[in-house]
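Run folding on both entries below.
>entry_1
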Amino acid sequence: MPSSLPPGDLRPLPPLERRILVVDDDPTVSEIVCRYLRASGFVVDEAADGLDGLAKAEQLRPDLVVLDRMLPLLDGIEVCRRIRGDWEIPVIMLTALNQEEDRIDGLEAGADDYLTKPFSPRELVLRVQSVLRRSTAPAVPAGLVSAGDFALDAQAHEVRLRGEPLVLTAREFDLLAHLIRRPHTVLSREDLLRSVWGWEFGDLSTVTVHVRRLREKIEADPAQPRLLNTVWGVGYRFDPVPLAPTGRQS
């Protein structure tokens, strides 16, 4: 796997030791990925098929899963869907498929990020570090913030809609919290990728998919959004208008 990035700082994230589960049936890819992660200070466990990967995710509760999309016994998409349905474990998906719909399938299943093979192992380490930082560090300052029918409690890591807590993934929470603190402000996908994901580069469809998933949880009609609006050619704008009594709650 050729390196596309200049040498970087691959020291482990201080101060706690982190456990990574690598699920890939290609022994060459798995060996390289595990070697780079271990050299960066992570504790690494391995699985070579989907069922074993799911079992080890349940048993070990790793801090992050590096998951191949094409796996024997149980497909990586289904493994990702089950992991994210049961536990708040970040997932980075590896795929040899370069079609946009294949990448979106992984994001729709709950993956936090993905890399297309062949990829730089150094880039993978940097992506792992980025996802872990975002999943463990507070996304917004502490304090209560209200916007329309939304109430953000950063300390409790909770957003309530009309008094009812929303069920959000860590990344969905980060995105919605960022929007709540910036109502009626147009934000480009590049802005959101940088501010919410902490990436200076990446596939902008990552933002698009998470906006779509967020709309499904906050909009009365996700196909005709009133709260999280698209500003064509620019980005997105959060307009926290009060919902009608029949408005959707999650």
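>entry_2
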Amino acid sequence: MKFSFRPNEGAFYELFTSAAHNLVRGTELLNELALPGVEVQSVSERLTEVEHDSDQITHELFKKINSTFITPFDREDIYRLGSQLDDVMDHLEAVGNLLYLYGLTKLPSLPREMHELVNVLDQQAKLTAEAMPRLKTMKSLEDYWIECNRLENEGDQAYRMLLVRLFSGEYDALTVLKMKEVADELEAACDAFEHVANTVETIAVKES
């Protein structure tokens, strides 16, 4: 039986789980943007509210790190994981804000590949939210990081195909510039989810 001097501090796991659930809320809001007749400004504002909530969770996490003598696992890993979860939310908020500010939802339709990227992000968010509570036992996490990395590869493929479409001549130059910025944020969010998964893997290996 393995014995650990580290405390089983539940507050850290709760904060990680709350941050991950906010990512699910974020991707659900991005999916709303594809609905007919959606109030885009409202969705963008709600995304900003979720992002602010995520910032508050991150601040609470960092305060907890600084006020806890012995943490459940390495302080650097706790800090890294909290920062990376917050990074994902920043990218999701940027997508929603850019779509609204650039008026891209007024197009007849957004490129299919853009919807595919949002779908990948939605799957990654749900996987991450399911995985965070399992940090407490460090069990049944391998499938999470393997699938999250596979989804990131799927997102990369959708991103490349989106670029092909953008530069095919289907859209005018200004629209291409606007959508390229949104595409870059979507791809960055996919990458950020993978960074979270890689950090979870690192923590699990250290603690095994």
